[in-house]
Design brief:
The chain is an all-beta fold. The chain is built from no helices and 9 strands. The chain has strands spanning 2-8, 18-24, 28-36, 44-50, 58-60, 72-80, 89-98, 101-113, 118-127. It is elongated, with a radius of gyration of 15 Å.
């Protein structure tokens, strides 16, 4: 199990933030994303998806940037190998954008080598 944490800086006067989830290394991935309150409680499901259905894995946070300070974003993902070959790699990238640009701290990456046929990843960010 891997985990990363980021501080994501938003412009409170800027547009609605959006998130994109990207799986790399030609592996199969699925995710769920939640917005949490400033105590790390009361998760609200923002989106869920996978990288095989052809649908965009980009979604709005659904809350104005001015109301996000101190709140948390999480992306829970499971990545599975596409084949049974040994030595395969995995990667996930989470991008947080505002007004079309990735914000400071809004590039969240996690990668490594599989030790079994799947890996659970938990990516966390706090909006500042």
């Amino acid at each position: 199990m891997a985990s990363t944490t980021a501080s994501v800086t938003l412009n409170p006067a800027g547009g609605m933030p959006e998130v994109e989830v990207i799986f790399g290394q030609a592996q199969v991935g699925l995710y769920r994303s939640f917005l949490w309150d400033n105590q790390g409680n009361n998760p609200q499901l923002l989106a869920h998806g996978n990288n095989v259905d052809g649908l965009p894995d980009k979604f709005s946070v659904g809350t104005a940037a001015s109301a996000l300070s101190g709140r948390y974003l999480s992306v829970e993902a499971v990545v599975q190998t596409a084949t049974s070959a040994s030595g395969q790699l995995y990667s996930i990238t989470v991008l947080v954008r505002q007004d079309g640009s990735v914000v400071p701290g809004g590039l969240i990456q996690d990668n490594g080598q599989f030790t079994s046929n799947s890996v659970a990843l938990f990516e966390f960010a706090r909006f500042v």
